[in-house]
Protein: SpoIIE family protein phosphatase
Organism: Streptomyces pulveraceus
Amino acid sequence: MITARAAATFDPVGRSVATARAFVRDTLQGWGYTDVVDDAVVLTSELVTNAVVHAGTAADVLCLRTEDGVRIEVSDHYPEREVPLQSTGLDFGSPDRENGRGLLLCAALATRWGVEYSPTRKHVWFQLDLPERPVGIRSAGPLLPVGLLPVADERVRVAVVQIDSAGSIAAWNEDASFLFGHTSDQVTGKQLTDFTAWPQTPGTNTGIVDALQLSRWEGSYGIRGADGRTIPVYASHLRVRDTHGEPSTVCLLVRDYERAVLQSPARAPVSDTAAESGKTDPFEIFIGSPAPDDLDGLLQRTVERARDMLDADAAFLLLATDDETELEVRATTGLPSARQRFARVPVEAGTGRYGSARMPAVHEDLDNVPGAVPLLGGTGMRSVVTVPLKVEGRLTGSLGVAAEAAGRYSNEEALRLQFAADRIALAVESARLGELERLRRGSLSFLVEASDLLAGTLDRDQTLALMAQMTVPTLATWCAVYTIADQASDPYLSYVLHEDEERIDGLKALLSKIAPPDPVPTPGARVWAAPSEAAHQAALRSSMRTLGLGEGGRLGEPARLGSGIRTTLATAAAVGGETVVLPLVARNRVIGMLTLGKPSDDHFRQEILELAEDLSRRAALALDNARLYSERMAISQSLQRSLLPPGLPEIPNVEIEVIYRAAGEGNEVGGDFYDVFPIRDGAYGFAIGDVCGTGPEAAAVTGLARHALRLLAREGFGGPAVLERLNAAILDEGARSRFLTLLYGELWPQEDGSALLKVVCAGHPLPLRLRQDGSVEAAAEPQPLLGVIEELELYEQSFTLAPGDVLLCVTDGVTERREGTRMLGDDGLADVLATCTGLTAGAVAARILRAVERFAAEPASDDMAILAMRVPEPPTA
């Protein structure tokens, strides 16, 4: 049964794909169907791309909500194409292709899907069912010894923050002021998003704004305190409405390590059959009930149970990579987990059975075999027992417990631990595969959005900024982008970003002092230890100075803990973790490196590195495209500038002003052109013309015409002869020739303050003469344009500009300015010119330009040139 519907239509343009994704995401999140948002967005993106890009038609998107899930239909208006069916043996296509992936993804992700035709359109639909959620009851949890109870401060402070429907802070209690340092007056009325550091990780798509709209929400994020530090908190949100019906959200927040105060117990299904039979699953005997429903919770519960079972001081659990060559630390207790999390150790650490994680092993004293268990180096643990986790004979992980005393464990403890590992191995592998699937779907959605953003710009600096902003904080804590101009150039630090803006300057200074990574084209991420080592050395030197120790440990005067030392120590903590470098390879050339880093003693997950590698390939191509575009744009603009006159000459007793506008993005010269130049002593030439069309082809004829005019005029030819020879030169261009309208004239300033002009108007808008009395008249007669017929009979017309007169010459981009069916025209231009009596040439040209721009709301689509000449009036005595 359909309970809600939402529909929208998107135009056949590229930007509609992103708009359609946003429409589907907003709709499903509004319905509370966040579990299927990622899949729906990816499928919609592919199907709308097929419609608006490949089919070239509008796309209709319909979302239908049911009790069990959602159905989405994407329709286009091009029904003639065939749809490959699995039963016919036809291939859906390769996932690496840029098109044709929509149906392949439907088959992989959707619960059900299909294709339907009508006489006017074709639409593809897919159904996504909501995952089944276990229904249980809240429980108080087992009775725990005092030593295992959650740790909290002597007084637990619960910040109560109320957020109104607009996202602004409406209430802020005393505990909130104590925890975060902001008073109620300082934050009331401001957006909560101004103070939150919200986690954005692949697979987690609920943002702070979305969370505030949910009826209930729990989770972790950060609040920026008054001192600039980010304070990790655990929050419980409840959406309420007051007696007037206005909604708001009440947020309860505690320090993250006190999350047990607010965190709801996990729920699990109640099995009446199991209760009646009295049988208990061996898994539940070990792990406890209810079992955590997330991988991290399950692994953490496992190591805690293993530690308690063997009365150990520490325990750890590692998961194997897909190729079973390495083990990744995923959960520890009693060990510095921040330092160890996601660190990797080899499966085969030695030649004997005790060096392999595939077999159980007991080490009575690690002091006798240093390095036998790399994870425990420097922790003080001496005895350890490790057992493998296997599923169907395949190694999936390793579970170990350790004690500070030697000789604590024997084969009997190894057998007990192996029995427990066998009970949980399948559950752990199932949870791991579920996590990988969620991460894969979140990564796919992330890459779709990243590709869309990178494809939306050709600006190099903006591309660099996007690369960094997409990785921080989604993939890494900080990011640096190095670029390489050419093969002979060294890598250059082009962009640095840290999730804490206050750390950017210190990080940039640190990276500037060390040699950049080698531009190795080998794909994949490689560890770069230089930033961490340099940061640690700088922190050590700063610490020694604060203690009054000089080089070699010599005692000296203690230094004050100034801002510089604090910045050095903060930078060391920020970059002290793992740093990896990914090459940016485009068109078989390394054009830069993408550097990602973690804070102190932190490591990258392999899945994150694989996602970063995919992103680096897309970013490299986008960066190289921006580079090529910038280079070609610079060449184009340089060539175009060579077609413009170098400058206007100073003509005695004559004011001259030119305004030139070329149509088209990046064009400085189009089909319109102008020129004013000296011919010989006392004589000057001027021209304004319009080549048929716009863009580079028209600009080529522009250059021919302007240079030919100067050459012929200075050879002593009169106006008609100049234009006739130019006409022949244009016709000689053959298929590349274009017809040309041209107004050419020669000017002689006179001793009495006037100016004598001779003009030839070959198919061009007639020049207009403004007299001192405000009258406007055409100053020439129309004659045939150039570049059409071979034999032309042109003549020139002479007139005199008296003091105070203005001669206005324009191209048809001015007179043909349109707004709907209206056009400015010659009469409209004459009316504007009539209002310019007494203005200088510059003021006349500026008033004409304003009139043209205001005539229509849309930007001009044609080239435009305005040439104004004025004979000034003699100064009065």
User: Anything to note?
Assistant: The two ends are 94 Å apart (CA to CA). The first strand starts at residue 2 and ends at 10. Residues 411-455 form the longest helix (45 residues). The mean pLDDT is 82.
